[in-house]
Amino acid sequence: MGSRNRKTKLSMENDKDSVERKRQCRIDYTSLLPNEIMIKIFSLLPHEDLFRNIRCVNKRWYNLTKAPTLWRIISADRKVPSSILRKWIRHSPLLKEISFFNRDDMDVLIEYISKYSSHLQSIIIENCWGNSKNNYIKGRRACGMLKKCPKLCILNFTQTCINSTKFFRILATRAGEDVEPKKYTYIGPITQKQMEALLDSIHRDNKHDLVVSSSSQHFGHIVDAGSPRVTPSVSDFIWNNLNGRYPNE
């Protein structure tokens, strides 16, 4: 009789332990963490995980993934759909740095940046097309971005084409401003008129920094504003060496 009572007691204790374990498994321990800690944890995750997975867990996580501090730096290649990337840009009022690689939707993305990213300080565009049918990025969109993003001080276009003379003129003018140091790099085809516009801005204002050096046949020449100063005589020498290598616009 005593043995049976002991077995019954042990069984009841095991049942209690089982219930307690199940109860603990159901506890959401992340709910005990403050929002600041959760946002810090989320900042260690890729943006695609935040957008596709984390925000779907519950309402609190959904709201936390929209914290502007999580979206100050964005990097996206062709794997991120254009529709999703546009949402990231639209909901990132504190966006400071953005990088694009191997994409074919830059016309629409640059337009979104112009509308929603006035605090942008750095943009890198590498091996990107304006759209799926045209490898040139529309000059009107690129010029609009330069005007709408006054804090932009780092611009790097690599293996990318801009079909605008005005863009290079604005680029040279901004490089000569004394607001803060700027680093502007363009690696891609450049026409005679575009080079003339760039050098003409330097002739008018000797504050500009410019380096022009040959690259491969595929990528044209490098125009880099952010290196040692170039005097008008040096810019003449550059143009004389480049003149005749490019088709007219």
UniProtKB/TrEMBL annotation:
Entries under Pfam families matching the protein: F-box-like
* Domain F-box stretches: 27-74
Q: Know the name of this protein?
A: F-box domain-containing protein
- Species this chain originates from: Ceutorhynchus assimilis (cabbage seed weevil)
